[in-house]
Each structure stands twice: as structure tokens, then as C-alpha cells.
Amino acid sequence: MKVSGNATLNAPPTRVWAALNDPAVLVRTIPGCERLEEVEPSAYRMTVTAGVASIKGSYAGDVRLTDQEEPHAFVLKASGAGGPGTVSADVKVRLADGGDGTTVLSYDADAIVGGMIGGVGQRILTGVAKKTAAEFFQAVDDVLTGAAVAAAPPPAALAPAGERGVYTAPPVGRPAVIGGDFIKGAVFGAAVALLGALVGGWAARRR
Amino acid sequence: MTETLHATRLVVNGVAHTLHVPARRLLADALRHDLGLTGTHLGCEHGVCGACTVLVDGEPMRSCLMFAVSADGAEITTTEGCRAPDGGLGPVQQAFTECHGLQCGFCTPGFVTTITAYLRENPLPTEAEAREAIGGNLCRCTGYQNIVKSVLRAAELVAPEAAVAPQAGGGLSEGPR
Amino acid sequence: MSGRLFGEPIARREDPRLVSGAGRYLDDLGPDALAAAFVRCPHAHARVVDIDVTDALDVDGLVALYTYEDLAADDATRVAEPLPLLIPHPALTEPRTGYPLVKDVAKHVGEPIVMVVATDRYVAEDVCERIRVEYEFLPPVVGVDAARDAARAVHDDVPDNVAAHLVQEVGDARAAIAAAPHTLELDLEIERSASMPMEGKGVYARWDAADASLRVYSSTQTTTSVRFALAAKLNIPVDRIEVIAPDVGGGFGVKIVHPWPEEVLVPWAAIRLGREVKWVEDRREHFISSAHERGQLQHIRVGFDDDGRLLGLDVEFWHDNGAYTPYGIIIPIITSTQLLGPYKPGAYRVEFHSLYTNTVIVTPYRGAGRPQAAFAMERTIDAIAANLRLDRAEVRERNFIQPHEMPYDHQLTFQDGRPLIYDSGDFPASLEKLKKLVDWEGFPAYRDAARAEGRRIGIGLACYVEGTGVGPYEGAHIRVETSGKVVVSTGLTTQGQGHETVFAQIAADELGVPLDAVSVTTGDTRRFKYAVGTFASRAAVMSGNAVALTARKVRAKALRIAADALEVDAGDLEIADGTVRVKGHPPGAAGGEIPLRTVAVLSNPLRYAFDEESKRATQFAVGDASGPPVAEDDEPGLEATDYYSPMQATFANGMHAAIVETDPETAEITILRYCVVHDCGPMINPRIVEGQIHGGVAQGVGGALYERIVYDENGQLLNASYMDFLMPYASEVPTIETDHLETPSPLNPLGIKGLGEAGVIPGSAVLASAIEDAEGIRITRMPISPSDLHHLRLDRARQEHDSTAERGAAE
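Predict the joint structure of the above. Result:
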């Protein structure tokens, strides 16, 4: 499935680039992201929480940033698997100078969605993907403009000596995902396609 | 956006239930799906066919036109409640089987409750009165002839000591004028 | 044999559960299933430009949402292909069917565009409401006139809107008419109506992933055909699908169409989601996305002699088939062939054009083209009688095919692809009975007396012939269990016709068991896999005969085994009350009888007993070592399967008479009496036969006086509810007086004919005849309401005032 879109961020491309490559930023802007562990440079293992109230689950996925042409473009490769399905996605991200200190970010995602999550229908997947993307970019924008809380403590404070960086989201109540109870699960399928988070949250099993 | 649920007390066929239902839940759906009493049927959901008729405090009502919450505290009788105390067929139901008053059976629950209430008001209907009594319920299968007979037979079964043999139909009858 | 059951008005065995609320209709099943709902096109002809689901995604409880692109993306199935053309025909040169979800262009109000699956129906409809579809409007074609004129096309590649064009002729009708001493021309119209069963359609599907098997419940008239269609569309082996019709709240033809889009999509979604899914339509959906029927424009030319005998009949009619043709051209073919009724037409020519319009599809509704045919012919006969000032019954009698002329070959092809040859019938005798029942001869005096009181009454008459029991076949399976129970299965379905009773009567009779020992299952592919379906008044003829043939096989086997056990000749044995007994032997006497259930035990040589009785069949108790336990040409078990496949249809007939009163002021039309004489050969259960007739008559009254489906010029259905589509209540249906005749069919073992549709066929014809008789105004269009009659009166008054008398106006 293909999903494309764009967003305008209120910072020049170099700062946007830095933000998108900063795990401390990612962990607080990716919807539902709880934990980001750097496995090697530009490769992360991510833990994401889906759901709300009584329906919560943690899911893990792998994200790798490649083909980096700072500060204009990169490719994000992601894959994840969970009970309800699998996703693997290649997302091309381009940053262009929008003038007046803004960046026009455009993304093109090519995702293969398999298993049960593939059964909900393309409109839900693409629709939720776009919504999640919009949420993510808004959150990044908030960080860039200072509207969000200041950056998390430096990695060293979290990771024991010798371990790679592990970043956790600040414990503020943020809505983990958008959408209805059931769709909260489906959202993650879309989120993964876009950001490389793991597909999960199949709250479908709710009775 | 989850809907607010309202505690609703219904006494259905003599058994008290407390349901927690959204305000917009139809009484018919509450009976059928929340209580599993699937004998009441939905033929149109706009109050014309009468298949959904149940007795609410003894009065025939279209359960597709009522919200369950608006029946809070009411005593409801469905077709299942028109059975005999031992679980066998009640007199109206028995009359229908004797008179071939049903074919597909989908409209029948509405007739059974309607007739049950009617015979309480008018235990000895004439044939014309019987036809009028069922004049608000649609049936697509039977052409009503045997349903009219069922009303008259039900009158006999409900109050055998009071009923007399119904007039036979046919001949050069004039019909309603 | 103790008291034959065939012919007895036995109370129905299905009634106790249905009447006490224990029926299991489609929506009573699957309480835990997800619910489906559809966004349906609100326009008659529109391209779907965009589908915006953004707002719908927020709804709590949404599970899935599908459009055509999801179907197209599914390589594993064939759901993206058009729905099948069920009945191809060489004359159907431009067939078209729709897709399960609209692909690019919707062609009638009601076509499904988006399928929503949610936790319950309320939520699903919430989702549907929030889906915004953008349309590009295309010009719609509505009504036969617009279709004929073809200024616009329903399908781009069918510019003249003609799906089919067929001419059938016998002799040279036009020459015969040209040479005839008298000719008449009639232009007639019948408006659209619809089956309107009290229960709409519904589908409930369960996929068992561990087993890779699918179970589908559908409120359908043909489970075996749905099964084949789903296997093809979903790419699942046939033996991994089972289709079951639960209790069905009426069909009347609309549920024979398959697979509906929903019948494909609900199982498809169930498989994709790994969850049970159920869809039940509401009444508006039924109006805009099921099927309608009856709409035709007819032009008739007839030539006749001084005695009113038909010399030539030339009929041309235009059939509105809606936006698609999944059921082919069966209805106009039936109209073409059944139009002849009980008459000899002289030379006959019938031509029809089946036309596309941007309206709901047109598929059979009880009668399936016969009501239109009866209307055409009976109005013609009445017109002839009026023209020659002859008695209308007399003219009919003069044109009847006589009993000694049976079998009568019309030299046409019927809807089953077989010759139109009437097998039996005694039309003069039927008419005699009807005239007596309604007191035809006494009517003029009755009318005069009424006139003296200022009342306006009239009498009408209409005859029809109905081809019933069409093939290709039906089958039955019967097994006698070791408990003595007799289990009967047949593949066709039931929608209230009492099959559980009538087929049990036949089986009990043939086998010699009590009725209570017999149970009957219909419409369940788990129990019987080869069948066609319930339609065209065929169930009794087809499955009835199959049950009889199968029971005879079982009986023969039982006698053979019993003869062995009792050491007598099979010819000396009979079966009564479930016991095989030597003829003439006193019941209960030792050595002369054996219960059928014991024969069932003996029919299956056992190694392992499973109860006391079964010990009798174990290897040390029984068996002749000179041969194998199961003979080469034999099978274990007291059971058999057999099929009945007819050479052609068998022709029932009937005649109706009605007395109506019209109000001189308000033009209100009241039916004072309605009389029916029908002939379906021997009746299995007279009570059920009567019930079928009553129901049909009610629909005939509805179609004559009340029921019309109304589309405006934009293709909007104006009366898509019971408030505006008027079906008769008890006050509209008169007391129905019936009499019957039995001319057996020589074509099948039981000698029976069908009658499921009989009651409705001449409804419009007989009431038009009666109203015309009361008013002296030619009635050419049905249904007719009081305001229609009022306007006809005004027209007539104007004509009389103009002093230009119209030819053909009866006075």
C-alpha cells in the first residue's frame, strides 16, 4: 500500500533533520512510543504502546535510517510483527526549504501489510496512517518551536555505562493513539508503515 | 466516543431485568439481543408492519418505535410470554396452529400479542370485529383469512365457556361498508 | 396401510416452534457476530469520484471498512469480478451485472459503495453516516419510454438500452389479423411492484481458520446455488463451504437471486477478519437494493371472428429490467409463453424488448411475468366480448383448449428451455365450477337490484395457465435410523410453504410409518448437496416426487431385508405404523412381523454393538457365511437417495371471479366477493394449498389496487417505505372463496402440479375486468386507485361531452 503526504514544520531543514535523527525527540513525538533503544548508529529498536484504558499492549519493532543525504532526504526502513500481522515499509522522506525559516516535509511510504491487520481495509490503513503522520509532525513541530516541554535528559542519564542509548518518553499523559478503541489497534499498523513502529494493538479481540 | 449507558428496568414475561443500554437502543433490539428473546421480529423499523408488537403494561406497542429506556419500569409481554404456564402453546398460539394462521411465521409474533391484548378487551368478537382487530398488522403470506379464523378460535380457547361457534365466512357477503 | 396422509389437511408440524417465538430466523443467529452496514449510492447514475473516510475513523467500534479497491487488491479471490449472469440466453445479447461494491459508476439508487464492519449495527451506521462520498452526476434513464427513446444510456456500451430482443411466433399472426373480420388494438401498462417479504435479506458467516472451512447462513431460496457461487468467488473448494437457510420469513421470489453483493462480501469479510460477521438489511435497504418486478408496457393486436374466436394474436411488449440483468430474461419469456393461458390463439406472435433503466434490478416476484401475461390476454378477451356484445365467459369457453386436445403443443419454448406443451387440464370444467361458485348467471339480476339502490357493482373474470415444476431436478435422501426415526432431507428451501409437513406426509405414506416418526430438513447443504431451489411453483412437484421415489427405494430395501429375516417372500410383506408385517398376519403375532427400526439395525452389519437393539446385527448374531456381509450391489444402512428430473413443466390452471363495488362519489373500490377455482392436480395437504392461494390472492389484490413502486425522473425511489408503498392489510383483502378441480399430471409419479404462485396470477386482470364492468370505462392500466378511477371518470365525461365516441369504450 502506498501512502504519501506532507507537512510544514516551523524550523529550517537543518534543525528538522536534527530533530528527526534525535532519538530523544523521536521517543516523545512518535505517537505511543515508550522506549527507543539505539542498536547501532541510525538503527533503533522501539517499544510502542497501543490502546487506552483497559486495552493496552506493548509492541516492538525495528527502524533503520538509510540513504541519508543530510539535511535533505533519508529513507526509513521499518519492519515489525505482532499477533495480528506484519508490516514492512520503506519511507522516503524529503525536506525542502519552505522559506521564512520553515521546512516542507514530504513523505512517500511503500508498505506491505500482511496478516489480520491487512484485513481491515485500505481506507482505514491509509486514513489512519495519514492521521498519525499528521500527529507526529505536529508533535515534532511543537518540539522545534519550543511549544513542547524541553528535551529529555541526555542519554547518559538513562543508559548504564557501556550500554547503548535508551530513551524513554516523559511520563506525561498523552493520548497514545487517535481513533476509537478498536482502531487504536489499527492505528499502529499505519503508524508502523509510516514510522517503522511495530504493528500491534489489535484490540479487535475486545468483546 | 462511547455512549452513555442507562440503567433500565424491564419486567419481561414476568422476569425482572436491569439492562444498561444507550438511550437510542430500540426496545425491540433490547428484547432481541440484550435479552435473547428473539421471538419479536423487525419487519420495517418504522412502525407500519406490526411484527414487533409487544405488550407494554398490557397495551400493544410497536417496539421498533420505542426506546428501551422509555420502557423503564414497564411490564412487557412478548410472544414468548404468551405461552402456557407449562411452556406449551398458549391459547392464541394454539389457535394459530389449528387454523393454519401462519406460513413463514415472521409476522406472527405481532399478531399473537395484539390478539392476546384484544381478547382481554373483547372476548367475543364477531368475524368483522376480528378482522378489524388485526387490521394494523401486515402479513404477506396468509392473506389474513386464516388469521381471522385464528382470532375467533382463540376466543373459544381463551374463554371456552363464553364463546359460541363463529359464523362461517363466504356466501354473498357484502364486506365492510 | 393405516389411513393415507396424502390429501389430508394435517396441521403443520413447524407451527409450534414458529408460533411460540422459537423460530430461528437469520437475525436470531450469531449474537456475537460483528455487524455490517453499507454506504449506498443515493443517486441513480453517478460516478464515484472520492470516498473520504477521515471522520469515520474516530468512531469507537469500527472494525473494518472496504471499498472496491480492497476487492481489487485481493488476488486470492475473484470478488472484484462482476456478479454472475445466472441464466444466459441467446437473445440476451447485452447482459450486464454489477460488482459487489461499486467499481466506478453506480447505476441505481441503492448500489453498495462502502462496506463497514463494526461491533454492532448502530455503530456501523454511525460510521456510514460519517463517510463522505463525492459523486459526478450522470444523466439517469427512468421508465420504459425514456429507455426506448434512448436519448441517454444506462450502460455506455449499450447505447439503445436494449438488453434483449426476442420474437417467437407460431403461424403468421399478422396475416391472420389482416384477414380477420374483426380486429382490436390495446395498449396496456402494468406498474412496478415488489415481493416485499416481511423478513428482508440477511447473511451470517463463520470462517473456521483451523479447518479452512466456511459456514454461511443466508435468508435465501437456494442454498446449493449460493454455495457454488461462493466457492467460485472466494476461491474455496466447494466441499469447504456449507450454506444453510435458517427459518426464512418469506421470499416470494426476491430471495432466489444470488449471490447478492452482501452474500459475497459478508463471508469475504469474515475470512479476512477471522471473525463472525452478520448483515441484516433494513426495510429501506430492501426497497433500494433488492429487486422489483411487474413493470411492462404492452401493445396487442388481435383478430377474431364473429363468434369471438381468436384468429391471430400479435403482442409486443417492453420490459423494464432495471440496471442489470443477473436473472437474464426469464420474466419476459414467461410473459411471452404464459400469455396464451387456456386458449388457442390461432396464429401467435410475441415480441419483447428488455430495457435497461437506472433503477433497481428486476427479477421474479411471485408470478414472475405471468400476471402481466394474464392481464394482456384477459383484457383482450374482455375487449373482444365487449366489441361483439357477447358474454365474457362465453367468449372464453369458445376459445378454450378442450380436454380431449390434451396434451396441447403450443410450439413455443418455455422458461425451462423445454417445449410449451400442456399436459392436462379441463378448462371448461374449471369455468363451470367458477360460474357456479360466484353465481355468474345470477349476477345481472343482483346488479340490477343494486343499481336500483344507487350502487355501482361489477363482476370480472380471469383465467390463467401456470407452468409449474420446472427442472432440472430435485433430490431427496431418506434414512431410517435404528431408533425408528425417519430422517428426510431435500436440497431446496422453505419460506413458509409447510415443507416440513407435506414432505413428511409423502414419506410417511410411502414408507408406512407414523407421521410423527418423520423429520424433514430443507435448504441445508450439510444435509443435501444437489438441488436447484424453491421458485416457479416447483417444490411439491420436484422434491415431493423425489421424496416419494426415495421412500420407495427405502421401502423396497426394507422389505428385502425383512423378507430375509422373516424368511418369507418380499411380496408377502407390507409396512404399516412402522412395522413390516406379513400381509393378513394379525398384528403382534410372533414370527410375522419385524419393526422397521430393527430392519434398520439389520441393514448395517456390525462388529461393534452400541446399544441393546444393535446387538442383533453383530457378526455372531446374524449373517450368512455363503456371501459377504454387504452384498456387491448393496450398501449398509436403511437409506437411499433419489432424484426426480422432469421432461418438461406440468401445467396447472385456475380461474378467478371478483365482484366489486365502486363508490359513485369517492371512486373507492371495494371487493365484495372473490372466488377462486384452481386445479393443481391431487393436493398433498389441502389446508396448505388453500393458504398458498389466500396469500397469492392478497398479493394480487395488492398489485391491482395498491402496490406501485414509484421512481421520479431523477431515478429517486419516492416510496421506499411501508408508509408509502401500500400493501394490503386485513381490511383490504376480501374473504376468499375457493373450489378446486383435480386433473392429475401424467408427467410425474405423484401426478401433482404446483400452485405456489397461483393465487396472484390473475389478480390485476380479474379486478380490472370487474371495475370495467361496474364503470363502463376501459381499464388498461394497473394498479388502479380511487383517484385513478376518478380521473378516468372525468376523462370519460369529457369524451362524452365532446361527442366523439372512442371505439372500444364499453358502454
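Residues 471-644 of chain C form a domain with the Aldehyde Oxidoreductase; domain 4 fold (CATH 3.30.365.10).
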